Amino acid sequence: MELLFVALGGAIIGLGVHYAAPWQRERGVLLVPAIGVVVSAVVWLGLTVLGWPWDGGWIWAVTLLLAAVAAAVAAVVLGRSRSTSDERMLVRLGG
Q1: 3-state secondary structure of 21
Q2: For the purposes of burial, counting CB atoms within 10 Å of the CB of 86, is it exposed (0-12), middle (13-18) or buried (19 or more)?
Q3: At residue 80, what are phi and psi to the nearest 5 degrees?
Q4: CB 3.0-4.6 Å disulfide test: which of 1, 10, 30, 86 passes with 67?
């Protein structure tokens, strides 16, 4: 059940990052939240396998912080690369 809550937290954080980061129109609305979900679930699973107690506060803080960082990095990198790619394509097409 906690994994579901962690995944939901990752989705909410990813959605917030999507709307807070620049280049919103260059990436899909669900891409950054999906990255937040995947990262939070994988980190949570890894930390529980390492023996971190699921009812402790540190596992929640580390998991959600890493999900936020991964979502923010992905949003900036994907937005910048898509914007650059679109500009190159526009120049190549003669626009």
Answers
A1: coil
A2: exposed
A3: -65, -45
A4: 10
- Stretch 64-87: mean pLDDT, rounded? 95
Nearest to 2 by CA among 47, 66, 68: 47
Domain count of the chain? 1
pLDDT over 70 at 70, yes or no: yes
Task: Give the whole-angstrom CA distance, residue 92 versus residue 74.
Answer: 26
**Which two three-digit tokens encode residue 75?**
């949003």
Across residues 21-27, what is the average pLDDT?
89
User: What's the confidence (pLDDT) of residue 19?
Assistant: 96
Q: Could you tell me if residue 52 is left (phi over 0), alpha (psi between -120 and 50 degrees) or otherwise beta?
A: beta
- Domain range enclosing 47: 2-92
Query: Which ranges in the chain belong to alpha helices (H)?
Result: 2-20, 31-49, 57-92
